[in-house]
Amino acid sequence: MDLPPNPGISRGRGRGRGRKPDEEANRGLAPLLGQSSNSSHTERNQASGGNGGGGDAQVGPSMREVQIPNSEGDPRGSVRGRRLITDLVYSRPQGMTSKKGVVGTHITVQANYFKLLTRPNWTIYQYRVDFTPDVETTRLRRALLYEHKRLLGGYIFDGTNLFCNNQFKAVQGSPYVLELVTKSRAGENIEIKIKAVGSVESTDDQQFKVLNLIMRRAMEGLDLKLVSRNYFDPKAQINLENFRLQLWPGYQTSIRQHENDILLCTEICHKVMRTETLYNILSDAIRDNDDYQSAFKRAVMGMVILTDYNNKTYRIDDVDFESTPLCKFQTNDGEISYVDYYKKRYNITIRDFQQPLVMSRPTDRNIRGGNDQPIMIIPELARATGMTDAMRADFRMLRAMNEHTRSPPDRRIERLRMFNNRLKSCAQSVETLKSWNIELDTALVEIPARVLPPEKIVFGNKIFVCDNRADWTQEFRNCSMFRNVHINRWYVITPARNLRETQEFVQMCISIASKMKMNIAKPIYEEIPDDRNGTYSQAIDNAAANDPQIVMVVIRTPNEEKYSCIKKRTCVDRPVPSQVVTLKVIAPRQQKSAGLTSVATKVVIQMNAKLMGAPWKIEIPLRGLMTVGFDVCHSPKNKNKSYGALVATMDQKESFRYFSTVNEHTKGQELSEQMSLNMACALRSYKEQHRSLPERILFFRDGVGDGQLYQVVNTEVNTLKSSLDEIYKTAGKKEGCRLTFIIVSKRINSRYFTGHRNPVPGTVVDDVITLPERYDFFLVSQAVRIGTVSPTSYNVISDNMGLDADKLQMLSYKMTHLYYNYSGTIRVPAVCQYAHKLAFLVAESINRAPSAGLQNQLYFL
What we know:
Layout: E1 17-18, H1 22-25, H2 29-33, H3 41-47, E2 105-116, E3 123-132, H4 138-146, H5 149-152, E4 155-157, E5 161-164, E6 178-183, E7 189-201, H6 207-220, E8 225-227, E9 230-232, E10 238-240, E11 245-257, E12 262-277, H7 278-288, H8 292-300, E13 304-307, E14 312-315, E15 318-320, E16 328-331, E17 334-337, H9 338-346, E18 357-360, H10 364-368, E19 375-377, E20 382-385, H11 389-392, H12 395-405, H13 409-425, H14 427-435, E21 440-451, E22 456-458, E23 463-465, E24 490-495, H15 499-515, E25 524-528, H16 533-544, E26 550-555, H17 560-573, E27 578-582, H18 583-586, H19 596-610, E28 617-618, E29 625-634, E30 641-649, E31 658-666, H20 672-690, E32 696-701, H21 709-730, E33 739-745, E34 752-753, E35 763-765, E36 776-780, E37 792-799, H22 805-815, H23 830-846
């Protein structure tokens, strides 16, 4: 449905006043969006200061006094989205002298880090720069300040904050240390006022902000283009013409203090650039739909777009079909149409005068800063970014992309060395680094590592020692599952016209289950005449009325709306474990039927796990251990809503039951209270089964952005510990709860290699590239066939379980073997993946809390 007309925009074609386009809309828009406003290398080089001056981003950890936009991530992804980290969060226990383990085979690995050979020894003075009258764009601010380069000397300027070696004398009677005057292109006098803010010593944590700014300035000399927060090389672009895509290779870099040295982390990355514009999407909507307006809005709402003329990204919030490029808006020089504005400002000719305008609403931060007007963008000039669901489902396109983006270790190491050589051979980069006394090592950092002992996978009639493949799928051909739940009462709901194909697949499942010593009786078939949502709902009601153990539902093709309808019915209205399969998977064409046995095996394993069976287990040395996973998933339909899911084990040495729950959270709501209540429920469930509380609790927290780390450490953990201690002391345990709380991070940039190969599963790194303020380690727990394996970061926030580093690392590795949706190891502990699976199901499909009657089953697999 179209929204009401926007006030202040003419409804006629070419009359009245429209809202401002992106460049004119708000002061400081580029910093607020975390983007550079550079539109060309010529303008950038003119505007950046000499001797390492210029720069686009403030990066790395910092103190609160300095707030600089365009933040870049640390080696473990210190910026997610566009949030800044303003404090180091110290989580390493006081008195800990070593966090290194000793168990395992000792090896040496290389990592994607370069050591800074010379530690900077300087004092940097920080100033705030204000312009009167106000200058809106960072690019123009830099150009105006560049005119005073001789006076300023070497400097770095991000549009608001100035860093330089010179300490200027204060002007008597004025808070400003320098007041300069320059002229704009129009001949207007502009005052530049520079005010002292503070200084950065080489021993301060703030030095890493400056070091990262200097590095980004050095990277500009490589003729790279800044897109979002990272630099990419458009000259080396890879064209995928069949899919309207380009791949731009680039680099993510970050400098920070690690255990003993200052290291530069460099990760190879790629930017997916779609060659189609919003105008192409509009043309397709007009061609293929009667109601093209609704179709176009559905296609672009929420999309992030890129405008090449100013290198900015925006999120589309609405489409105004009443406005066109002929509409006018107000500027300091009077009214001007969008057509004339873009011709005058960028020498861009807009071709279609009748196209609508898309709108990007101001963020909460924009509004707090007084910028409450939306930004109007021309579809013809906006390029779509990211990938649609249809693109993600296109396996041909993904395969074509993976050939270029999933680099094996040897190629990745080669590209890292090429990057280092470019920095050392480019004259501008060399001059920048030399002027700040920075020298990089040419060799990748070498790190001591260990390979943990392999785990034993226990089946019903066999023990399998997990090898470097980290996969035991083939073992199910001659092994029974560890604990089977026989299925005697179950229903299969299928379209009547596909009954034969469904029966053949069900018979295959029964046959395979018998080989795994699991008995599955013949089901009752509920045939439905059509595949409407209401028909499926009625069939589920009919089946649930007979109290089945599980219901299998067959749908013809993947359909999110139909899947959501089925899951709402089986998880909320008529709670019963369900298994949804698509006809395309269970009844493929003859030439694609080779993997059908594997599909049936996985379905049998899933159904057994959903009914509290155990396909396999591993040896857990501790008795009375509860492992907990927590993750958060944001609702795609309401950006102010998210769902936090908690999944807990009930002592995996003796039990195969789980406890799960999920809660809705609104934007800005504190998670700690709900987490404590959910943990109390999990403990109650544990006590009902074992008649005692768990001896130890190992809590894995996923879904933590680095901007949330301070809140998690200082509020969430403390609230949880206080609540658990109270429960334990009430139960007569005076010492309270023995809890270890670990933050698990997958989105990291660290990589390490064994020679020119991937490290084997179980490879742990707990020195050199870890952080001195943390009790942390990296773990590679899976094997990959294509590309470079990604380690997972484990940050131990709180620990009073009494286990040393070796035992925590080994327990974390063990837990990656217990995810029953995949017969192999995964990147994170299984409880984390279960929590993610549950949160994702509720956020995407159910949108409400599931029935409590299912909380002890893995119904969400």
